[in-house]
Description:
Elements: H1 5-14, E1 24-27, H2 35-43, E2 53-57, H3 62-71, E3 75-78, H4 83-93, H5 101-107, H6 132-138, H7 143-157, H8 160-169, H9 173-190, H10 193-207, H11 212-236, H12 257-272, H13 278-289, H14 297-306, H15 310-322
Parallel strand pairs: 1-2, 2-3
Amino acid sequence: MANNGREAVEILLNGPQPPPFDVVLMDLQMPEMDGYQATARLRSDARINTLPIIAMTAHATIEERQRCLAAGMVDHISKPIDPESLFETVGRFYKPLPANPHVVAARNPANQPQKSENKAPPGLPTIVGLDTRDGLTRVAGNTKLYSKLLRQFAEQQGPAIGQIETALAQGDGPLAERLAHTLKGVAGNIGAKAVQASAGALEKAVRDHAANAQVEAALRSVASDLDPLVAQLRTSLLPEAPIPAVQGQASARTMDRAQTCAVGEQLAMLLSEFDPGAADFIETNQGVLAPLFPGPSWTAFANLIQAYSFGDAQAQLEQALKNLPAP
């Protein structure tokens, strides 16, 4: 993962050669260096000029796709992401070695995620302005993950209007545009289509330097869609229960060191692969893992994983395993 195009270029050009990657999914709108600039830099280096780069953008127009191809990208995936389309596109450019049976099995259509039937399960509330069937499709029908994303949306995007107003008041148009773009993308991913549309209109108004009255009208439109949605999410979805500290934890000297090491290494592997299953793994194995993090540090570590901060969690876990006392 890279936070922007500049980081991506540094990882690919300054890391191991040839890079240990099969395909690059390139977002187009990023700070510091956008997707077009990053692709141009990568294509200028003969070592990796054949590495497939697939554009990811919310602008699904013919002109945008042609611009991506002209810049050196091999294809174009529109956002919000349709998992079936994503797998199909990546599958056309990712060429695994036939000798690897696991990879061959992964390419077997029988093993690919099936298209959701778009039926919202009983556990999800009915919320005005939210297409839960569409949102579930984006996460391949994973209700638990979808509920988590809804909570995160309410928490992280609830203040978006105030943040955009502050950026505009400070004369920071690029930040206001980026905040609107983020809101648009995240809203689309969860099925909040009205917010997605109004945030897109606001993004365009800011980008085009529209008159203040037009921008203010676009802001009001977003607020009229976003505020009721966030309010409903906060009242309809119970807060996610935090992972509790394990009572009566064994000390690092009395616990089963071999078992803790084995389970810790399994978790480290999940974190290194950015596997979302790590969140379920720590819930199942907290009794074995918690002694690595005495006192309140266990809750802090677990929260990192629940928030998908896998890089930070992996670093803490590896340090904790190194600090285990000798048997």
